[in-house]
Amino acid sequence: MPPDSDQELGRDRPGSPPAPSGASPARGARDAGAVVGPPALPGGADARTGGYARDRVAGARRWLRTTPARVWLLTVVCLVSVAGLFGSATLTLNQAREGLDVVGHGAGPQAMTTTDLYLALADMDAQLADILLMGTDHDLGSGRDEAVERYEESRSRANEALLQAASLIEDNAEEGGAEAATGEDGAGEGRAEERSVQELDLQAVLDGMGEYEQLATDARLRNDEAQAPPGEVDATALVSYRQATRLMHTELLPKAFNVSLDSSAIIRAHHEEGQSAVALGLVWVGSAGAVTLVSLVGLQLYLRVRFRRRVNVPVLAATAGTLLLTAGVVLALVTSGEHQRDAKEEGLDAAMALSRAGAISTDMQADQSRYLVDPTHADNYQQVYLERAQQVLFRPADNLEDYYAAIDEVAAASSEQSEGGRADGDAPVALGYLGENAGDSLLPGQEGALADVLVSYNALQDRDRELRAAVEAGDLDSAVAVRMEIAHAEDGVFRAYEQALDELTGQHKEAFTAGIARGDSALAPWSWLLPVGALALLALVVLGVRPRLAEYR
Count of CB atoms within 10 A of residue 279's CB? Predict the structure, then answer.
């Protein structure tokens, strides 16, 4: 018979003998042999553990619904956001500084030096041609000693430029190796291939210089031994010189020009990579700043609603500080990037282009000496002179006479523009290094410097006309005298042209240096301003929430 409800409740049934005094129902049940206790839970110990975990979760949920917990949570979000802003800003500022350092203090100046390689090699061949042209008259023009001294100086400059180019390529190789190791979009493989081509060019120039100097020395010795008069080079010496100048113009100068172009490509790659990295960093800085602002505003609103205070001053100050810090970093990065871009395009690129113009001009005027030294190939040297002149300043012309007239128009229009201070819509259009290329990169106040270059270049063409007219008239002595006057180290028209070109090039170099300096100045204060600002923001957030949390202690 099943027990009734009283038994279940531990009460005595009616009519049963009373339980001994002081005995509990449980004791009575044990005395009767019954097992009395709490009902067993399904699962045993695991069930008790699960219940404990559920209690902890429920307790955590209840705690998260409390005001202190929510204040703590919002505070942690704000602190982490400020840390993220500091980290992204630091990384982007470092990338901007590295880009400025590479372009302004590393690869940029090195690349500028490599343009001297072509110039130095061209000047070596020009001085050799002048030495042979002088023959036994060592006092023509600036004199044989001056020509020999300039030859040695050019050789030293060529060696220095080779070292600079090798250093630039080595630095680029290290970066390419690092990128290849990390597998960044195949950039390392591309740079390795580019590096191998550059190294081969440099090695070819280095090897060729030794061979060229041997041929040049042989030509000088043979011409001196033959006691050749001015303008009449010894036949055996002429053979050696032909080999030397052929080596110079088929091997050394083309490869030297490629080294200069490769250096420009390296700078462009560094600049573009740096600008892209900074642009991406700006997105991260802006995003981190926005997240920090949103979290601070959320904390401010919660404190206002929950604690019935109009405004929390420290949190408000942190919000304003975050806005200023983010805007300041973004402004500094943008300003620095603009200065770097201007320094590269209006400074470095323009200066290197003008340096190439000077190098080609040096080789071009050396064709005048080769035109006189080697009558057999005079027509070839005359045509090459026109081709090089077209590279420096292009005007449509089929022969030198037409070119002389066209250049005279350009020089006259440039002088008028410089004096009037404005461009003439009817001015002839000229291309080349001294044409639109120079005009596009012209800085305010440089119109007069460019006009001086064009006027002196036109004067060089006038003297070239005289030289060739003397040759056509059969007056070799007058032609040699004109050539020596052109090449005179102090008073020659080519020297005047070089000085005007160096003045304009120097202005672009100054613009490059100034642009890099302004970029550095825009970033310099943030080396200390950013960490100080971030610490101040963290302190303001803690200062704003601490009194509110203290109310719950």
Answer: 13
Query: Other C-beta atoms within 10 Å of 441: how many?
Result: 19
CB 485 within 8 A of CB 141: yes
CA distance 484 to 383: 21
Task: Count how many Cα atoms sit within 13 Å of the Cα of residue 232 in the half-sphere of its side chain.
Answer: 9
Distance CA 488, CA 141 (A): 5
Residues whose CB falls within 8 Å of the CB of residue 461, separated by 6 or more in sequence, listed in order: 389, 403, 404, 407, 408
- Residue of 351, 334, 332, 336 lying closest to 511 (CA atoms): 351
pTM: 0.78
459, exposed or middle or buried, with CB in 10 Å at 0-12, 13-18, 19+?
middle
CB within 8 A of 346, min separation 6: which ones?
441, 443, 508, 511, 512, 515
Burial 520-538 (b: 16+ CB within 10 A, else e): bebbeebeeebeebbeebb
Residues 444, 446, 452, CA angle at the centre, nearest 5°?
160
Neighbours of 285 (CB within 10 A): 25
Phi, psi of 394 (to 5 degrees): -90, 130
Position 103 scores a pLDDT of: 87
C-beta separation of 484 from 141 below 8 A: yes
Alpha carbon of 452 to those of 206, 362, 399, 407: distances in Å?
Answer: 36, 18, 25, 13
pLDDT digits (tens, 9 = 90+) for 81-137: 999 999 999 999 999 999 899 888 887 887 787 788 889 999 999 999 999 999 888
Q: CB under 8 Å to 516, separation ≥6 — which residues?
A: 100, 103, 104, 105, 108, 339, 340, 343
Residue 260's region, left for phi above 0, alpha for psi from -120 to 50, else beta, is alpha
Which pLDDT belongs to residue 55? 59
Phi, psi angle pair for 305, to nearest 5°: -70, -45
Please give the pLDDT value at position 174. 64
Report helix angle 253-307 to 67-101, nearest 10: 160
**H-assigned helices in 183-252:** 187-225, 235-247
Positions in the chain short of pLDDT 50: 1-41, 177-178, 180-183, 186-192, 422
- Which residue matches tokens 């390795």? 192
In the block, residue with structure tokens 């202690």: 553
Q: What is the pLDDT of residue 172?
A: 64
